[in-house]
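Subject: Predicted fold for Tetratricopeptide repeat protein, 598 residues

User T.R. writes:
Posting the sequence so we have a shared reference for the thread.
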Amino acid sequence: MPIRPVLSALLLASLLSSSAIAAGQKTPTTPPKTNAAPFVPVDAPDFLVGLVAARANDYATAAQAYSAALAKDPNNMELLRQAFSEAALAGAPNAVDLARQTLAKAGGRSILTAFVLGNDAVLHDRWQEASEAYRSMPSDALTNILSPLLQAWCLAGEKKYTDAIALLTSPKHSASPAAPFYVGHAALIALLAGDTGQARTLFDKANQLFPASDLLINRARANLLWQTGHQSDARNLLRAATGSDTVLSLAEPELQAAIDSPPVPTARDGVAHAYVLVAFILRQQALHAPEVDSMQQINIASAMMLRMALTLDPTMAIARLMLSEIEESLGHKDIAIAVLQNLPDTNPLIRVAQYRVAMLEDQLGNHADARKTLERLSHDAPNLVLPLRSLGTILSESKDWPAAIDAFNKAITNARASQTLDWTLLFERAAAYERTNNWPKAEADLQEARKMVPDEPLLLNFLGYGWAQRGLHLTEATELLKRALALDPDDAAIRDSLGWVLLRSGDLPHGSELIERAAEQTPLDPEVNYHLGVAYWDLGRKTEAIDQWNVALGLKPEPDDQQRIQSALDFSRTADIKTKFPIQDVVAPVQQGSTVVQ
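User M.O. replies:
I've generated the structure tokens; pasting them so everyone works from the same file.
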């Protein structure tokens, strides 16, 4: 089970303050120091359970165990902080009480206490209390960006919409790097207030400041158009927003069905989206962090923001999707799956979440579960490319080549219809065709793909080696593979392919040299070792050839490679060393009506 460092209550504050995004402030190159673990006797069962659960990311169990340990040692400040941290992560009922206890201690004030107490006030519509709690956050570059959003939504909660919009569009905040986001949230507040004219003006301004609108803003703008009688424009806007993202295209029917509902119907939802926005900003910084440790720190802080959003709206799909992505990046694939479970079927992003779960299940080796989900998504969205393509890839991994080809056929048909066909999809189908020994169709796909990307080394290698294996077009195959190696001189597979075609063309010295170098790069590749054995045999190095074939046989080759290797060993037992190795062409069965594209 994946583990993470135990997160102290004050670690978040140090992470956020060190994850500056204001101009001129950089991510630290060394990780912040965490507080020492509380001193508790090693035989204290509750503490040990909490420690193990915390390292396994089981927040609920950790929160319960640490709280039980704290009850036995209520004056242990470090234990209080740990119990509070885990309770906050788990959204446990006692998190608010622990936050108050922590705040009452010297040095207990932190961003996390402000979040928990502020969110509790929001949940009970105590907006002034929420505003005061958020105002207590320690000041740093990140909280200076988050605070105006939280304060504005607190004002909106009091129905002081004019004040809220004025706050976010004030000259002070117009100079902030986050100004486009402030204006976007001001537009959301205007939409909540029913002021469609001001909402339109603010959305237009936000788009001028930052043209790359996110899903939330696009949904809000579509809803605004719908409310003001521009239904066709509303649907087109949403269609364009989802059509440009193949993952979001899974959700288009549901998003269109919800177009008449505002995506931020309450001020509470606005506060939740403020957390998501800052999590997104952090996430973007993590992707460009100079060191792995810095990236992990920022991701943990971003995950905390998302968990705060989920305490306000546990069904918030966008927060769950982003949190799942972060947990995956931290190596917690099982948690990434759990985060996406139990979303309501009515959630517009439910199929996006299901697709993400299928991809994660496949990575964990649960191919049957992934296949079942993708088959269902493909059935529900038969005109889309993504679920069918992913299904084909998973079927290929399971070596169910006929089923993979069927899925790729449908995906390619859809891609042609939507004019989104790319070479990689043709490449994947070609690989499946090749594995069923249908070279003419594989070759046709590769030739079509070459027209799209003439200098793609993967394509050149696949086509050139495919010809070499079959004794076809050896001169052209040599030129293709030389071009491929020039484009990617470090690729061992291409070097082996070129060596093999040279060997087949009679250039034994150069061919054997290339294969030998490829074997040095990839010593555990059975096909390369087989080729090296052939080269050694023709060089008169019989013992070394037999050694290479024995090595290749022990590397669990594919069935067709295994047959070739075994045939080579059988040949070596009776053949004279002066006899040139009899390379057998891979012969594709004749396909009625098929043609070889040259």
